[in-house]
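Tokens in:
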């Protein structure tokens, strides 16, 4: 079974994606997870958690929270939060992967280049 996890340098850190859907961002500030509004609020209520701020993208910032550093030593708890991030990012409401028209646009550019 192939998992399709990818990382990409992005916005001062690394974007972590599963099947094209970003669910985490790792940077000097820590490990950020892309969560539903409810889960983000719950995580931010924990001691040591804080918002992950992307200065050039406030809308994106509103979807991420940095996990408390101490949580990284509690693997089952951390894994539960990562699971929530993956589920949200893979959902219709949390979709962050390529747009439905991205493939079509790439195909059109390829065809135009052949003319």
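Residues out:
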């Amino acid at each position: 079974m192939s998992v399709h996890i990818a990382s990409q340098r992005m916005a001062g850190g690394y974007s972590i994606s599963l099947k094209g859907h970003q669910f985490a961002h790792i940077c000097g500030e820590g490990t950020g997870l892309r969560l539903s509004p409810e889960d983000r609020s719950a995580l931010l209520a924990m001691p040591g958690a804080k918002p992950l701020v992307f200065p050039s993208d406030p809308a994106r910032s509103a979807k991420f929270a940095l996990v408390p550093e101490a949580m990284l030593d509690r693997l089952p708890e951390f894994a539960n939060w990562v699971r929530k991030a993956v589920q949200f990012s893979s959902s219709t409401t949390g979709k962050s992967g390529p747009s439905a028209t991205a493939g079509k646009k790439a195909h059109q550019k390829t065809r135009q280049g052949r003319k």
